[in-house]
Amino acid sequence: MIFQAIDIIKVELNNALISAELGNIGEIVSGTGNNHGVNADIIISLINIEENRVSRDPTPYVRNDSGIRYKNPAIHLNLTLLFTSVKHSGGYESSLQSIQQLIEFFQTKYVFDHINTPALDPGIEKIILELLSLNLEQLHQLWSMLGGKYHPSVAYRMRMVTIDKDTGISGPLITEIETNYHLK
Fold first, then answer.
1. How far is CA 167 from CA 19, 130, 137, in A?
2. At a CB cut-off of 8 Å and minimum separation 6, what does 180 contact?
3. Which helix (H) or strand (E) is 42 found in, with range?
4. Which residues pair with 48 in a beta bridge?
5. Which long-range contacts (C-beta less than 8 Å, at least 24 apart) are formed by 111-115?
6. Among candidate residues 42, 37, 1, 49, the one with its CA nearest the CA of residue 21
7. Please, is 171 exposed, middle or buried when counting C-beta atoms within 10 Å of its C-beta (0-12, 13-18, 19+)?
8. Nearest to residue 56, comparing CAs of 163, 172, 169?
9. Which parts of 66-175 are beta strand (E)?
10. How many CA atoms lie within 13 A of 44 on its CB side?
11. Nearest Cα to 14, choosing from 49, 40, 47, 53?
């Protein structure tokens, strides 16, 4: 579901006439990756995956009509995405305009569900994007880690991407409990 969630954001940006591609921005800005000939204005990079443990259901069993089924709890993920403007024509001013358009887009549409985004994967209930404010130290650490020089960019947290694979192990309902007490 990680790829499907990020890809629908790319599709929605392109539908809004904001040219976007998925890629590792660290490789692109250093010229070492496959995408150093990128034609998009915005590169979407996944920079962090974290589990949202608050939403985790601790119950490993699901009841159905014929009995119970063992099922590991779903994993709810928050993804951190970095949107970087790598506009080659127009220079720095054009890059700033691309970032502004991106922020305006997410200001008007920050929730993606099956009503406002019909192409959303059926396995994804809803995606919520929230702007992350990185301070100068965090930006320095991020761009140092990526191995490139700073480009105009903005980070968003994508909330509630759920990984929920069913194990298929099932059993009958417990209808009787037998106890054996031996008194001495």
1. 40, 33, 43
2. none
3. strand 42-51
4. 80
5. 112/8, 112/9, 112/12
6. 42
7. exposed
8. 163
9. 67-70, 75-85, 111-113, 126-132, 153-163, 169-171
10. 24
11. 40
- Nearest C-alpha neighbor of 160 from the set 134, 139, 129: 129
The answer to whether the CB of 46 falls within 8 A of the CB of 81 is yes
Q: What angle do CA 100, 115, 83 make, to 5 degrees?
A: 25
Q: What is the pLDDT of residues 103-158, one digit of tens each?
A: 999 999 999 999 999 999 888 888 999 999 999 998 889 888 888 788 899 999 99
- Would the pTM of this model clear 0.90, i.e. be above it? no
